[in-house]
Fold:
Amino acid sequence: MLGLCFHLGDHNDRHAAFFTVATWGSLALSFGVTDLFVITQKPDLLEGFGLDPARVLRLASPHTLKRSPEFKDVPLVQLVTKNHDVPMQDLRDFKHPEDAIYVVGGEKNGCPENLVDNETSGFVYIPTVAGRSLWAQQAASVVLWDRSKKEGV
Amino acid sequence: MSKYLIMHDVEDETLVHNPAAWADIAGAFDIAHVFKVGGVQEGAFVQYGPEHSIPQKFVCVMTPAECQEAGIEGSDLLAYSHPQDATYVFGPDNSVRGWHGAFAGPDTDYVCITTPGATELYSFLAAGLVLGHRWFTAQS
Structure:
């Protein structure tokens, strides 16, 4: 399986939330993501977007993903900025797991609010000028494209 | 050495048109200038005009379907060797749609982005792939 977990962010209105979800959804479809997870404190914002909760959208946090029997054995690949104190790998050298859930942080902190332990997870950073961070969606697309090319797709 | 990026033909304001996303991707991957052609003026974009001197080596970013539609044989991004000094051209969102008649010429390069899925990438995401690839290959 290929999962992608993102933060919905601090949207207070459905209009902004819709565009965020639509962009993530488009990104997921572009890269063949099978499961799209949304971390949000406001799930009601997502109602009526026409997404199929059973196939595309699940509400989660990184920790609940690891606690879920369905996904507990799936490696989490967490995208981080280089200034985090975790054993991270350069994307260019990273070997993507066959099954994986990629966890992307919110726009403001550039990293999942609560990083999951690294026992079954990997931390990956994208090298940039002076370690500058990317928008979460841009970071996700760079990593998923890297995965697809390393798989020869 | 100057590096440039152009986004063109953005006509409305949505989250994915946010100038900050373009500014951030440019800063992260060593792009000196972001221009915008057409559409409304917003945020940090500089509206491109004849007063600007930019490299006339254009790199238009497209999907394979767009290359086929335009009858252009584009280069796959993975194998593409980036020019030292160039103007990268990206189109409006819902598509990378980088081809534009104003930038067509004998020296124009056309780069295709292939993804496993059926949908096209938003242009601000395509920019991350192209400029990231450029930066990574320049560093290696």
Notes: Helices of chain B lie at 19-28, 64-70, 123-139. Residues 9-16 of chain B have pLDDT under 50 and may be disordered. The first strand of chain B starts at residue 4 and ends at 8. Residues 123-139 of chain B form the longest helix (17 residues).
